[in-house]
Amino acid sequence: MPTHANPRYAAPPPPAGPESRGVVVVGAGLVGLTLALDLARHGVAVTVLDDDDTVSTGSRAICFAKRTLEIYGRLGLGERLRAKGVTWKTGRVFHRDQEAYAFDLLPEQGHEYPAFVNLQQYYVEEWLVEACVAAGVDLRWKHRVAAIEPGAASVALSVETPGGDYTLTAEWLLACDGARSPLREAMGLPFTGQVFRDRFLIADVVIRGDVAFPTERWFWFDPPFHPGQSVLLHKQPDDVWRIDFQLGWDADPEAEKQPDRVIPRVRAMLGPDVPFELEWVSVYTFRCRRLEQFRHGRVIFAGDSAHQVSPFGARGGNGGVQDADNLAWKLAAVLRGEAPERLLDSYDAERIPATDENILNSTRSTDFITPKSEAARAWRDAVLELARDHAFARPLVNSGRLSRPATLAESPLNSVDSGHWPAGAVPGTPAPDAPVMRDGQPDWLLRHLGQDFCLLVFDAVWSPTLPGLRCLFVTAEETPGALWDHSGLAAARYGAPPGGAVLIRPDQHIAARFAALDEAAVSAAIDRAMGRSP
Amino acid sequence: MNLDTSPRLQDPDGFLALIMEAHRGLDAEAARRFDARLALILANQIGDMAVLRQAIALARGTG
């Protein structure tokens, strides 16, 4: 009995004739829906096309990182993810029958969201659909793009539906159609990188009642129950446990999917007395690759259609959500006429280095898990042998370097610090959270940043007369109308001197820092972050 | 810091004898893992990535 039944969404009838739309998203998956919702909340009319009539099935993204939760917090869904998700922050690595290494992903207190929650992707997509509908997004299920014709000022699409076909012209086309991206294929864009010669079995199993595993990420190298290979275990909601068994390149993917092969593997791991049911089984190989550029004129790729990584590190879904977070406010600003079109080039300038960081980490993890030669295996095993007893070898153990938010340190949108600013989060970093008090109630800093430019002002009362710029005051002493930094963590994390201010972008990344308030400098920093500087 | 390639071992014959002795009775696979463990221990002792990079380049050049 499956733990989840997919909703079926009605396919709207096709329009009577050709249509034109400002923004069309292709693909109602995690990234496409996130992007559509973010755009709608910025006041942009969005149409979403999807060739299916439901959310994702089976085991897809499960580990939602703190930064992703903060993005969903901004979009109004963060609490829902946290409440349903399984919170964890500890990873444990075993070699043979002994623990080799453990790590804590959020050693620091004072953040609204945990390091990670585990949650099935379909839940997040269902809630995104609800939120998109409430925000007025035009969702068109079973509307499949059959052909694409990119032009200089618009993109023509041929759309097929059960009720008939039509032509849709989009000023902007956002391609979120997944790793196999038919749009990318139709445009003939090279998607290059490497394939890893290994196969993995994913088994999602339902275990009711007591389970001997804590809510941690457990990874085994060469365990007694699966000799010579690795195994990864994650807990999800609804008593579902995800198990990845490394199988090796020679495994037969069809045979390995059969229950008579899967059940003994799971039983060997859980022990003979633990009852379980199989919820989902698949066998897959990994790739790490990306497009050379994500923006191609009026067509912009986001998520798996733009880049693909191995799952060790949870960098696929989390990376894609960060793409959406990065792109939505920029496109909204261009459509409002507040920013020039070249602001969209900064999506490439920011997200390509972030993608390369994800690919590098994911590739190194996969090279550790699947050594490419006998020598590589000897080194890998030597690390694991030493890690058991010697602290120096533990940082070398790589079972996945878990998703960290990209620091857009080299972004052309960042400004040089105005005045001396010695410490704290640098421009390009996602704005750090901190506990604050507001009107006598405990609260969180990030909740107040909003989705437009915001100037965080520390221990000063100063409002620049810049149109559209909101100021948020953070004070060391309790002050009416300000966020009270009672623990001092906000000032510490931003490294803010009294009277200093930090300019936060609509995607809640730091754009600039001002040691002393200077209206001209703030104005110039906003121009730079909007792509308006020469 | 730079890799120091001047002769630094106080007892070169004694060092090689120690290494040979440590390998005694190991088959090829075990010997390879022993060498890897030893190299990891020594690399950690050095710590400096620039020196390690030079050492790897030097070892490849004479391989």
From TrEMBL, chain A:
Spell out the molecular function terms from Gene Ontology: FAD binding; oxidoreductase activity, acting on paired donors, with incorporation or reduction of molecular oxygen, NAD(P)H as one donor, and incorporation of one atom of oxygen
InterPro entries, A to Z: FAD-bd (IPR002938), FAD/NAD-bd_sf (IPR036188), RIFMO-like (IPR050641)
* Cofactor requirements of the protein: FAD
Alphabetical keyword list? FAD, Flavoprotein
The chain positions of domain FAD-binding read 23-357
Q: What PANTHER family does the database record attribute to this sequence?
A: BINDING MONOOXYGENASE, PUTATIVE (JCVI)-RELATED, TRK SYSTEM POTASSIUM UPTAKE PROTEIN
- Check the record and name the NCBIfam families matching this protein: PRK08132.1
Q: What is this protein called?
A: FAD-dependent oxidoreductase
Organism of this sequence: Falsiroseomonas algicola
UniProtKB/TrEMBL annotation, chain B:
Cross-referenced InterPro entries, in alphabetical order?
DUF2783 (IPR021233)
Determine the domain of life of the protein's source. Answer: Bacteria
User: Which Pfam families has this protein been placed in?
Assistant: DUF2783 (PF10932)
Name used for this protein in its record:
DUF2783 domain-containing protein
The species is: Falsiroseomonas algicola
